[in-house]
Amino acid sequence: MIGIIINPLSGNGQGKKTWLRVEKELEERKTAYIHKATSYGGEAYEIAAQMVKADEVKRIIVIGGDGTINEVVNGIVDAGGATSCALAVIPAGTGNDYAKAHEIPKNSMEALNLALSPTSTIKQIDLIHTNSDNLAINNIGAGFDGLVAKLTNEAAYKKLLNRLGLGSLAYFITMMRVFGTYKHCTIWLEVDGISHELTHTWLAATANIPFYGGSMQICPQALSDDGYLDVVVIRSPSRWKVLSILFSVYSGKHVNHPAVTFYKGRSISIRSAAPLLLQADGEAAGETPVQLKIVPRGISIIAGPPAL
Q: For 139-294, CATH number?
């Protein structure tokens, strides 16, 4: 049995529009499925758990953005479906970082074909576990990006840009809003038991995929199935130096900048003198301190073919 979870509000209504196209196609194909749309935050988690436990679905298709995917992943895993139920996605959000990382087509019909095909690649990927007992599938960031994620999700221009198909620009606009007043700080980063005191820190992002914020290649080397977490730290007392880094993140050219440092490990902790906002898969996720660890092969997903 196939289960479909729809967030009709994702992408400022793109979720609903996408579902109407998908529903029509499923009817024409006479595909058997169950479905439910969300109506409040956290409901995707509940629906996913219900589909795994009570309905015994073997494939869940998410129509929504990265935040909805995050809820569904937590629901599948908590219900015991990490290996028995495969996650498929039809992207309909603002950033759609998960879809980009896993070669899922932007076109809804192509993504549906991938989700339904019996020959599609099913792979197991890692997850990020937090000390609050939640999971992330893409990334968790502390500092500048935590604030950017919070303000972007609250911004009226996010809705407008989503309607125009330019949702990823919302993150860039918020970055420019925040940049002029954001204050860097000292953090203490611990990677597999080794502690680093890092002054003038703007952000510390722990990544499971290369992308975040729509199209920024924050950790170009990150792999979702290598059993490790990749951490990038941007630190500098110079505001203008950081500005040049932020522009270069879109192309991934920041990797050789002296103000950018990368770490790799299985267990990560971040402390700061004052609490820093956190984001998990683009959604607000509390404040530092935070402890993270890798969950190897934590969930089964349907991925697109590798790019040629």
A: 2.60.200.40
